[in-house]
Amino acid sequence: MVRHAVLQLAPEKGQVRKNLARLEAALAELAEDAPEVVVLPEAFPTGYFLQGGVRELALTVEALGERLDAIRRRVWEGPLDLVIGFYEKDEREGAYYNAAAYFELGGRGLLHLHRKVFLPTYGVFDEERYLARGHAVRAFDTRFGRAAILICEDFWHSITSTLAALDGAEVIYVPSASPARGFFGPRPANVERWRELAKSVAAEHGLYVVLASLVGSEAGKGMSGGSLVASPEGRILAEAPVFEEAALVFDLDLDRIPPVRYDNPMLADLKSGLPLLLNDLKRVVEAL
Amino acid sequence: MRKIYGVPGGEVLALDYPAVADYLSGFLRRELAWRGYEKALVAVSGGVDSATTLALAVRALGPENVHALALPHAESDPRSLADARLVAEAFGVELEVIEITAMVEGYAKLRPDLTPHRKGNVKARARMIVLFDLSVAYHALPLGTGNKTERLFGYFTWHGDDAPPVNPLGDLYKTQVWGLAEELGVPEAVRKKPPTADLIPGQTDEDDLGIAYARADVILEHYLKGYPDRYIEALGYQKEEIRRVKELVNRTHYKRHLPTVAVVSTTAIHEFYLRPLDFRIELE
User: Is the domain of B176 the same as that of B97?
Assistant: First the structure.
């Protein structure tokens, strides 16, 4: 069992110091629950909608890691794994990314940096105007197992989670920021969509999906929350409310993955079947 | 900060019993229909499995289409027949009582060496003979009543109580049958009494098996799904009881199969020539 906590928090726009202080206070509150992995939403240090302000507020992954480790030293005993979405500045490239990092704080430090591949630039979103795209989806080893990170729209394309699963991921962490829209039922339509996606991806590949979804109001856009964890059979094991700050504490039992996959061997079938489709995949990609 | 605690994932044995009751009633209707039957025959022992089967049959077919039989032997616990009457009454079905003593004792006289265990098997097979004979007489399909736990443990008489062609409970663990029984209104006295085959005076299932159903079912579910022993131990189960469960399952695989046939051709039934049991082609 790997104890996790998702911190569904509402950052103040652009207040990096304040938001990291909020994180510190939240971690202090979580200490009694002793999570080994804490997961934060997309763009947590700054808030999501920054427009050109990305240039002023983005952090290098090294600087973020140092600040997070300083927080850990103040409020935590022992190592702490932390997944956090943030706007990343690559000073050498002069490029900015919507990124998420997996840090093993108090241990090996940065284990993985994922740069969002699918930048929504439609409707209320305008990411590609300000940000560069990532070009990779990779799984990586943590001290507990193998994981991957996908950010928000990345996860809305089933091919990304498929890649992560084929690359061995047992857990997919999904930091997101999803403005509420579509009030037709008890939950906003986007939250319903997230629930369905998380359940289907988890069940298709027999892995855990951990969604950390931002809350807070950003200039009239209500970030919807509804963070959740879906089990390898596609059941929701824990779910945070919409719109409110909350900490979601839960255990992931990675030992359940092999028996669940044995019962429903979609991933093994995919490994056999995908090479058969590779020519067509190339054909349709080359025709784009 | 509001904290919400998740429930760890795990194998779930509890079922949605109203949904299961509906599903199994439909199962009985469909399985009888394509076989050309409108009526069912249930041997009611006074135990929870046959009571639950009777309840499902009544729900599926109506009490007028269900024959309930009690098949006591002189050595049977009289409380078994009393409970069988209670069950039949609860579900509005007339109970036909046919003593199997003469059948069993007729054979017993021929074999003075008959042990209580062997005699128990003879009783179960005598009941099977009556059930199948009356199936023809009433044009009613015999229903099996064995649950998944006893089937996995081989805790039944081969070609005896496992013989009926349709069994609604065969994929429900004993603890799940208890849940379904409550949903269907099986009398509490029947649900709460210690399960017994009542083939040998004084026996109970849990004494015979050496493990309580509530523990066995959880171990079975994990074992069948491929969880390693260390995982099951971490759930709070002892090495010895896990070993006992595995032992019972592994020495009885043959009881869950048709007889072994020597394969000599390329049309060996169930080896080369494979058809599902509901397969029928349209003949010219």
Answer: yes
Read off the pLDDT of residues A116-126 as tens digits, 9 standing for 90 and up.
999 999 988 99
Residue in chain A lying closest to B226 (CA): A259
This prediction has a pTM of 0.81
CATH number, domain containing residue B92: 3.40.50.620
How many Cβ atoms sit within 10 Å of the Cβ of residue B35? 12
In this structure, are residues A96 and A56 in contact, taking their beta carbons and an 8 Å threshold? no
Using CB atoms, pick whichever of B6, B225, B231 lies closest to residue A249.
B6
At B101, phi and psi to the nearest 5?
A: -55, -45
For residues B242 and B231, what is the distance between their CA atoms, to the nearest angstrom? Answer: 11
- For the complex shown, is ipTM > 0.95? no
Q: What's the pLDDT at A96?
A: 97
- Put simply, whether B6 touches A (Cβ < 8 Å) is yes
Count of domains forming chain B: 2
- B48 and B123 housed in the same domain: yes
List pLDDT tens digits, range A225-283: 999 999 999 999 999 999 999 999 999 999 999 999 999 999 999 999 999 999 999 99
Do B215 and B151 reside in the same domain of the chain?
no
Supply the angle between the helices A158-166 and A266-286 in degrees, to the nearest 10. 120
Distance from CA of A213 to the nearest CA of B (A): 15
CATH, residue A175: 3.60.110.10
A147: left (phi over 0), alpha (psi -120 to 50) or beta: beta
Strand A146-149, strand A171-176: pairing: parallel
Domain assignment of residue B152, given as a range: 17-205
Spatial neighbors of A272 by CB under 8 A, at least 6 apart, are: none
Same domain, B22 and B117: yes
Instruction: Check CB contact under 8 Å for A259 and B9.
Output: no
H helices of A31-177, where?
Answer: 54-57, 61-75, 127-130, 153-156, 158-166
Q: Are residues B217 and B193 in the same domain?
A: no
B93 shares a domain with B171: yes
Best CA proximity match to B221, nearest among B115, B114, B140, B149: B149
Is B190 inside a domain boundary?
yes
